[in-house]
Every structure is written in structure tokens, then in C-alpha cells.
Amino acid sequence: MRIDIVSCVPALLESPLSHSILKRAQDKGLLEVHVHDLRDYAEGKQRQVDDYPFGGGAGMVLKVEPVARCIRALEQEREYDEVIYLTPDGKTLDQSMANSLSMKKNLLLLAGHYKGLDQRARDLFVTQEISIGDFVLSGGELPALVLTDAIGRLLPGVLSDESSALFDSFQDNLLDPPIYTRPAEFEGHEVPEVLRSGNGSKIEAWREQAALDKTRKRRPDLLQRDGNV
After folding, report:
1. How far apart are CA 204 and CA 93, in angstroms?
2. Which of 18, 31, 72, 103 is the most buried (most CB within 10 A)?
3. How far apart are CA 93 and CA 134, in angstroms?
4. Which pLDDT tens digits describe the chain residue by residue (229 residues)?
């Protein structure tokens, strides 16, 4: 899989892409991530990518021209399955969305900045708009990294245990059950006996019930998606 990220502050993306699972995925040749500086497609000595909004108001708006030049240049090199704009008013990212996008071959992520992106760029080029939550950040770089990580870890061969991602929270509309490791006792708090029993069927039953109880308590909305309240 290849993911191209367009940003006017590409330095914000460097460190997270150079460590941990995302680095491992790239080192294995399972994922390519390429960051593009939007200012490289701007005109003038200042390489300006933003301007004041028509009609007045606070903040600056990303201009349509550099975005158009950048996307068109990249589209000449390959066909993208999706051109995704990271924005607070997009569809909220969830696990099923990450699962679906992990099946694609080429994705282009456009990180917004300042007040936002000229609507004409959204109308002309964007095929999906994604949010990571009902809050506002300084730009779309962190959401682009969140999306890249959520997708990258699902690619076959990226995780040491390929089945691990299948049992993450939200894969079956349930939160993960509590997890424990050594020591078995800490300051009077013990690991549940069933987890130390070695009985696989009992452990699995305990985990299923614990996941259901935790989800019912913390995120009952997830259960309502399947009608299992």
C-alpha cells in the first residue's frame, strides 16, 4: 500500500513516521508513506498557500491553486483509490472505515490547516472527508497520522502476531476486556484466577463476558449498532 500525505507543515509528520509500527511497516516494504510539501506547489518567493476568506472573518484559508497543482501532479504518477481530506466536519473515523481503507492500494491524504480549505478544492478533488472526533486541532497533520497508523497496522505482516489486530477494540463493536501481565499480585490486587487457570475455553468465555460488560458500561452505543443492548 502507498499513502501520500500533502501538508503545508510536513515537518510535523516526520518523527511519528520514523518509529514503531509505521517504521516497521515501511522497512518491510508493506507500506509506503510519502509526505509532500504543499508550498512546493505555490507561486512566488513567499510560496504562499493561504489567503484571507471572501466575505471577511477570522483566520486564513488554504488556496485552491497549490492544492490543485499538487493533486494533479501526483495523479499523473498513479491512480488513487481515495483522496481524503482530514477535517472536523468529515465523517468520524471508526474501525470499520479503517478496515475498508486498509484494502486499498493508493491513498492520498490532504491535511488541512489554518481556517480550512477552499471549498472548490474539496468539490473538485476530495472523495472522502474524515474527522477523528468532534474537536478542532491546529491542522490535519495529526489526524492524517492517526488515519495512517490505524490503516497501516492492519496490513498483513505488519504486526508480529497477525491475528492481534482482529481482536482489537471496536472490531466486533466491543471494547477490549481487561488485560493483565506479571506479577500475579500487586499491592493486594490479583489477576483474575480464570486467566491463570490454563483453561482456554473458560478464559475465552471470561474475556467475552468482560468485553460485553465493559462495553455496556462505557460505550453502550456500540452495542446498539447491532441491537445487542
Report:
1. 29
2. 31
3. 11
4. 999 999 999 999 999 999 999 999 999 999 999 999 999 999 988 899 999 999 998 899 999 999 999 999 999 999 999 999 999 999 999 999 999 999 999 999 999 988 899 999 999 999 999 999 999 999 999 999 999 999 999 999 999 765 555 555 566 789 999 999 999 999 999 999 999 999 999 999 999 999 999 999 999 999 987 555 5
Sequence-ordered list of residues with C-beta below 8 angstroms from that of 44, at least 6 positions apart, any chain: none
- C-beta contacts of 37-40 below 8 A and 24+ residues apart: 37/7, 37/8, 37/10, 38/6, 38/7, 38/8, 38/62, 38/66, 38/67, 38/70, 39/8, 39/66, 40/70
Residue 97 burial (CB count, 10 A): 16
Distance CA 143, CA 3 (A): 14
List % helix, strand, coil for the chain (3-state, nearest 5).
40, 20, 40
Q: Coil, helix or strand for 200?
A: helix
C-alpha cell, 34: 510519502
Cα 109 from Cα 100, distance rounded (Å): 15
Contact between 158 and 29 under an 8 Å Cβ cutoff? The reply is: no
Grid cell 489554518 is found at 114
**Residues paired with 161 in a beta bridge:** none
Q: Which three cell numbers stand for residue 170?
A: 471496536
Assigned C-alpha cell, 129:
472527508
